[in-house]
Amino acid sequence: MSYHITALDELVEQFEKLPGIGHKTAQRLAFYVLGMDLTDAQLFADTMVRAKKTIKRCQVCQNLSDSDTCAICADTTRDKSTICVVEDPRDVFAFERTKEYFGSYHILGGLLSPMDGIGPEQLFIKQLLARLSSGQVKEVIMATPPTVEGEATAMYISRLIKPLGVKVTRLAYGIPVGGTLEYADEVTLYRALEGRNEL
Q1: 120 and 156 in contact (C-beta within 8 Å)?
Q2: Residue 178 pLDDT grade (very low, low, confident, very high; cuts 50, 70, 90)
Q3: What are phi and psi of 198, to 5 degrees?
């Protein structure tokens, strides 16, 4: 008969639900939490719950924000004539690290993947098209990853945008095929941004 502590097993199970966390790492994290004093453990738990309750989607670009409009959309110094379209908020953080892009963003919330049941209606494509109706936007940069899903998404959206008379470009391939923006270094991202091509 193996030795079990129900509360510990449940804590390990919760950590195992996180992406990239296997059983041994989950166990290590659970023991780390048990080693914290109660005040720190409570602060850790409260911070997670507070983040979940207060962080929402920006009404303009769908980025994560603690207010209705994110800091990037609210910044009057940003170039509103260019929108960089990305898969998720992590990609915005990657671009912002380059300190070379001063336009705005639009987060799709995923990529087209019929095999996984993700069609256009599951993504924030309608919201992107609504932003283009003002006539202020001159260029949309498709910065989806160079994967099958990323390419399909970029092509689908570019076909919707082109009739509106807005220039659509694609990131140049400084980013390896199959790679994700989140793990690309600043120089690679900057070169990809600089060498973007029209679709």
Answers
A1: yes
A2: low
A3: -75, 140
Examine the pLDDT at 187 and tell me if it is beyond 80: no
Model pLDDT, residue 172: 73
Residue 113 near residue 145 (C-beta atoms within 8 A): no
CATH classification number, 6-54, choose in 1.20.1050.10, 3.40.50.150, 1.10.8.420, 3.40.190.290:
1.10.8.420
Q: What is the pLDDT of residue 36?
A: 96
186 vs 94: CA distance, rounded Å: 8
Write the single-letter amino acid at 57. Answer: R
Predicted confidence band at 181 (pLDDT cuts at 50, 70, 90)? Answer: confident
For the chain, give every domain's residue range: 6-54, 61-198
Which residues face 142 on adjacent strands? 85, 170
What's the burial of 80, exposed, middle or buried (CB within 10 Å: 0-12/13-18/19+)?
middle
Give Cα 195 to chain centroid, integer Å: 22
Q: What is the pLDDT of residue 191?
A: 65
**How do strand 197-198 and strand 79-86 relate by DSSP bridges?**
unpaired
CB 177 within 8 A of CB 146: yes
What tokens does 186 get? 């600043």
* Full-model pTM: 0.79
Are 61 and 78 in contact by the 8 Å Cβ rule? The answer is no
